[in-house]
Amino acid sequence: MTVEMTRQAALLLTLLATLIAPAAAISAPPGEQVLNIGHRGASGEAPEHTLAAYDLAIRQGADYIEQDLQLTRDGVLVALHDETLNRTARGPAENCTGRVDAKTLAQLKTCDVGSWFNEAFPEWARPEYLGLRIPTLEEVFQRYGKRINYYIETKSPETADRMEERLLALMDRYGLRKPAAVRWQVLIQSFSAASLQTIHRLDPSLPLIQLSFFFETSERLRAQLQSVATYAVGIGPSLSSVDSALVAAAHARCLDVHPYTVNDSQTMARLLDLGVDGIFTNFPALLDDLLGKRAGPPKAAGAKTARASDHCRRP
């Protein structure tokens, strides 16, 4: 056998070994079980926390859509991320600037929360985004009912009058408390442990997610998991905090891991390899495509709901 033939034979053997070798092991189940969470809706391509962003997220394959809650001066829960209106609202200054909790719902309904997006992201701008309004949580429930899954955050609950009680009452009104408890149709998250513990006292059956700030390290989060597991079913760390040790420690305590906010496929793939249970993204279509490729056959129609690790499922 000549040197060239030997070299070709070696290359062929290497190729065959690559083809038949098992895929690298990952600690998560196949991709179809990982949750695609629309961060503020499909907020990379539509104005955040608008019905347009929620509709788009659902069309793009999101399994959950997120609502950040703020409370108006007259006690109405609305879907808005910031405590102030300055970044995303346009309209009369007396109504559309300053703190949300200083405005009535009637004032907020005069504000345009779509124009800013067209100005900031001209590549995604659409004429129908002009004039979009801030939705109340009740309007969101009225629009989607039990057809979708909700991922709701209590924002600044320390200064909001009975935000937790108002949320649960609204879930009761739309028949969402039982499906939240039984199949996690509603997940409730917060950076405030006190807020989550209040909800846990009011109804221990509800699935809660403890958020953590971007500067928290894996080591520090791991030290908190035992306490978190007494009231929550999962954690929501910043993507920069997530490593294999955190995922393993969380799963050992029956806590799911849903990092935020991941907007590129390379980082998504890294987190999936670490075994996370869900990912927040501004671009649900991007994650849906990646999950579909990893899962093999097309996933069944209909959104998935959250799950605890298989060995300690709660619902």
Describe the structure.
The structure is a single chain. This protein is of the alpha/beta class and 315 residues long. It has one domain: Alpha-Beta Barrel (TIM Barrel). The protein has 13 helices and nine strands. Strands 1, 2, 3, 4, 5, 6, 7, 8 and 9 form a nine-stranded mixed β-sheet that branches. Helix 10 packs parallel to helix 11. The longest helix is centred in the first third of the chain and has 18 residues. The N terminus is likely disordered.
Reading off the top of the CATH hierarchy, the class is best stated as Alpha Beta
Name the overall outline: globular
Strand proportion, as a percent range, falls in 5-15%
Structure summary, number of beta strands: 9
**Element-level helix/strand string:** HEHEEHHHHEHHEHEHEHEHEH
**Secondary-structure-derived class:** alpha/beta
Helix and strand topology:
Blueprint: H1 3-20, E1 35-38, H2 51-59, E2 64-71, E3 77-79, H3 93-96, H4 105-108, H5 115-120, H6 137-144, E4 150-154, H7 163-173, H8 177-183, E5 186-190, H9 193-202, E6 208-211, H10 218-228, E7 234-236, H11 244-252, E8 256-257, H12 265-274, E9 278-281, H13 284-295
Parallel strand pairs: 1-2, 1-9, 2-4, 4-5, 5-6, 6-7, 7-8
Antiparallel strand pairs: 2-3
